[in-house]
Amino acid sequence: MEELKRRLPPGVIFDPSKEQIFRYLRNKVYKTQEPHANPELIKELDLYRCCPSDHQGLSKAEDTYFFTQRVAKYQSSRLSDRTTKDGKGYWRRMNKSQNFKMGIRNTLVYHLKGGNIKGIGLKTGWIMQEYELKPADAKAKVNKTTVLCRIHHKKGKQEREETDMCNVREQVPDDSTKDGSDGDRNREYLMMNKSGNEYQLKNIAARA
């Protein structure tokens, strides 16, 4: 956002409306020149490279706007791969997509793996609004989709837990067996038990 601030006149805050966001996105995707929506003002970011807390392109202090590539989970699939490449967690959609005349808006929250017994993960304060254009062919299956995202961090009681979980994830051991056999194999399950304000990591071995 610092680069964006330098491009704006003094005293001007970048706070586009929903309609303006879709105009920025259309100009980016279709190379059009709709007025007051220069896509060069907004940077491109590899959102799914790592956990947002570790991402140098994101800030907890302010909203961040950027273009990113959303990749299909499988080739020729309509499902998106929302897991970050560092394996720490994933972006989970929190409600139904909102359909507008100009496009679609999704709201997602980042969850850290291993923090919930139901397998959902620990909900963090990172919230994303993802804007995408409606495809010309509604049934089309696209491997990559350019979207415009707005991310902000909501402070709360989960922030300390989020930090602790990130630190624990750095210590997760390799679950492969030393001999590489496919027979009797131990699977490592990571469970987080809260003790005061700290987490303790427990490994529970189970036969396959």
How many helices in DSSP terms?
A: 3
Major beta sheet, specifics? 6 strands, antiparallel
CATH superfamily: NAC domain
User: H/E series, N to C?
Assistant: HHEEEEEEHEE
Q: Please, what is the average pLDDT?
A: 76
Q: In angstroms, what separates the terminal alpha carbons?
A: 48 Å
Report the sheet-strand fraction: 25-35%
Report the count of strand segments.
Answer: 8
What structural category characterises the helix and strand content?
A: alpha+beta
- Taken from the alpha-carbon principal axes, the silhouette is globular
Question: Helix fraction?
Answer: 10-25%
Total of domains: 1
Q: What features would you highlight for this structure?
A:
six-stranded antiparallel sheet; two-stranded antiparallel ribbon; Metal Binding Protein, Guanine Nucleotide Exchange Factor, Chain A; disordered C terminus; single chain; 208 residues; alpha+beta
Q: Would you mind describing this structure in some detail?
A:
The chain is built from 3 helices and 8 strands, in the order ααββββββαββ. It is of the alpha+beta class. The longest helix is centred in the first third of the chain and has 13 residues. The C terminus is likely disordered.
Summarize the structure.
15% of the residues lie in helices and 32% in strands.
Task: List the SSEs and their pairings.
Layout: H1 2-7, H2 18-30, E1 64-71, E2 89-93, E3 98-99, E4 103-112, E5 122-133, E6 144-153, H3 158-169, E7 186-195, E8 198-207
